[in-house]
Amino acid sequence: MSNSRIGGFLSKVSQTFFGKRMIIAKSRKDLDRMREAGELIAEVREAVRAMIAPGITTLELNAAAHKMMNEAGAKPAFLGYKPSGMTPFPFVICASLNEQVVHGFSTDQPLQNGDIISVDMAASYNGFVGDTAMTVAIGDVSEEAKQLIRVTEECLMLGIEQCQPNKRVGDVSWAIQQHAEKFGYGIVRDYTGHGIGRTMHEAPQIANYGRAGTKDKIRAGYCFAIEPMLNMGTHETKTLEDKWTVITKDGKPSAHCEHTIAVTAEGPEILTLTKAQKVQLSQGKAETVGV
Ligand code: MG
């Protein structure tokens, strides 16, 4: 774990350093702001999802996300993000195609029928950050690719279910791992979920594999970004020469989905839902909510 990197975003923050950092419980007022930030980024995510089709370019998706954030008065959290020793990330979204796991660059290449794309985005709004990701099929994709996306979404929801007071961070990790392994998928180990709040990356680090009953106790007021990354083949990754784009070592496809959630006394609350999705959820149509 010592080399694990948070949030999809490369960082030199080690597990030891993380271990010394406090998990910040949010006040009621903070949570209201987290809800606003979460809903805003969810609206952007769904607008981008609706644009994804053969022929559109990731630069166009990036521009659309940027425009929506600007118009809403939100600050893109990825653009210019610069971990120590790195060049600043040059885009608003991470657009990762097929074997790209995370941190893919936007390009002027039209999306191709049959491919899959993972889009990750985050924005700061009224001082708090919402972070979300989805993997989307472009046109008609193989049954194998559909299953990879579906299982990644299921892992996300199973992980979120564990975000209850008095459970532990390891319970989240284990819930994700046990489901992914039923399908033989490689669970990315180099990148993890994370706490989130006024900054995009807070303690704790939330791995997508681990042992139930271990790590920090979960308490009401904690906010997490849960983000399973599953590979059709090996869990191993490597980084391209651009120093950002992470791909699977064996070139097989990868999927990534993410919600920002708050732990409440009643259980987990998904913050990165659109207004429409919240209505669907309240009407018991939860199957439409999975990202
Ligand atoms: Mg994240």
Which whole number gives the mean pLDDT?
Answer: 93
C-alpha geometry:
globular
Question: Fraction of residues in helices?
Answer: 25-40%
What ligands can be seen in this structure? magnesium ion
Radius of gyration: 17 Å
CATH topology description:
Creatine Amidinohydrolase
What is the number of strand segments? 16
Q: Can you tell me the number of structural domains?
A: 1
Specify the structural class.
alpha+beta
What portion of residues belong to β-strands?
15-25%
Please give the count of helices.
6
CATH architecture call: Alpha-Beta Complex
> What is the quaternary state of this protein?
single chain
CATH homology-level superfamily: Creatinase/methionine aminopeptidase superfamily
Order of helices and strands: EHHHEEEEEHHEEEEEEEEEEH
State the distance separating the first and last CA atoms.
Answer: 27 Å
Segments where pLDDT lies below 50 for 5+ residues? 10-17
CATH class, please? Alpha Beta
How would a textbook summarize the main sheet?
6 strands, mixed
